[in-house]
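Q: Given only this backbone (377 positions), what sequence would you predict?
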């Protein structure tokens, strides 16, 4: 695919006083400045909840007006917490088709101005209606997956703390991260229960934030080498296995095949770790290690910025924060910054040539994999 990321824009993640449109515009302007305000002929915007001060926000036309892009074409994308990944794929395919020369891709979410109970209910809308009707929540079902995973592989819940410790250590290096204070395994274990084995520090925070990238035709340091997406059954009871995500495995296979790559070519990874155990599962589903081995990579430190496979060098969802509709694009943006040599304080020890970003909708119902790099193997 002869399409590359020419510029990246991200603001600060966390509790922000600005509106959703303000957050989106902030990231968009930074990305536009990165290409010298070259003409944009396509605007693609994503948000899961699109919450504004007066209710649902008409984000696409409002942002186009704020940026002076009324003459461009535009699309709105949404796939729950996978929205950021979908938004990027829509734009990349549109530019690759030859119809557009340059696209601005923006994903944003405003969450912290609403009660936690209200947000929990809205996030549960990504579940099957029978699960939501029974009172299931995303953390509740995430805990069910975690329990099954730990039992299947004979792992102690304490091993999951290493994921949070890693992400928070990386977030401490990221001036835009939501949670910049490192934590210890003891602090994770002492945090209050949410849905056991998940405790508070196993769960990504409620966050405001936005990310933006400019996509252009042609090749560059962050060229799109392969993309893939796939579905799984919406209702958990209809799935064959809860200790892995079929949608991730299929999406990864499609992205690897398009790029003529294998997991051995990947030098930096951004994972959708809304809950700590998911990071371990994603490492396995993406092919980096075998079933039940993901936690060992964190315990052994093999995912550190100077280690075997740097993972979530910007802090991941557990540290950078989880503005749900924006998180997928934030991960892609982080990989692009690493490849372009623009990561600054979050840079890995060695500048990578090929990186992978993973995004997950709901509890693995539609997952996205994006591989960027300077070229094929």
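A: Predicted residues:
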């Amino acid at each position: 695919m002869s399409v590359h990321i020419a510029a990246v824009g991200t603001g600060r993640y966390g509790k922000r006083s600005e509106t959703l449109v303000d957050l989106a515009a902030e990231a968009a302007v930074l990305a536009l400045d990165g290409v010298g305000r070259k003409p944009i002929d396509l605007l693609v915007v994503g948000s899961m909840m699109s919450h504004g001060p007066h209710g649902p926000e008409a984000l696409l036309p409002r942002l186009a007006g704020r940026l002076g892009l009324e003459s461009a074409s535009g699309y709105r994308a949404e796939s729950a917490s996978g929205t950021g990944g979908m938004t990027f794929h829509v734009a990349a395919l549109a530019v690759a088709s030859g119809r557009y020369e340059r696209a601005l891709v923006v994903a944003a979410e405003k969450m912290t101005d609403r009660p936690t109970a209200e947000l929990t209910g809205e996030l549960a809308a990504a579940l099957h209606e029978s699960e939501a009707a029974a009172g299931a929540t995303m953390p509740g079902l995430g805990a069910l997956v975690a329990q099954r995973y730990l039992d299947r592989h004979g792992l102690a819940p304490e091993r999951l703390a290493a994921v949070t410790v890693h992400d928070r250590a990386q977030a401490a290096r990221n001036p835009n991260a939501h949670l910049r204070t490192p934590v210890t395994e003891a602090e994770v274990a002492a945090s209050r229960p949410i849905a056991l084995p998940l405790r508070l520090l196993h769960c990504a925070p409620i966050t405001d934030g936005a990310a933006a990238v400019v996509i252009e035709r042609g090749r560059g340091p962050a060229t799109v080498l392969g993309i893939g997406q796939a579905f799984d059954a919406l209702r958990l009871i209809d799935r064959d296995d809860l200790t892995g995500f079929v949608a991730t495995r299929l999406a990864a296979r499609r992205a690897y095949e398009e790029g003529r790559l294998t997991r051995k070519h990947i030098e930096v990874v951004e994972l959708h770790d809304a809950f700590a155990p998911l990071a371990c599962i994603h490492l396995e589903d993406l092919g980096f290690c075998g079933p039940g081995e993901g936690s060992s990579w964190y315990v052994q430190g093999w995912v550190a910025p100077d280690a075997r496979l740097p993972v979530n060098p910007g802090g991941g969802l557990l540290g950078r924060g989880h503005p749900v509709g924006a998180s997928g694009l934030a991960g892609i943006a982080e990989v692009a910054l690493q490849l372009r040599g623009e990561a600054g304080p979050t840079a890995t020890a060695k500048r990578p040539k090929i990186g992978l970003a993973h995004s997950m909708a709901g509890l693995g119902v539609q997952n996205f994999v994006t591989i960027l790099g300077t070229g094929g193997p």
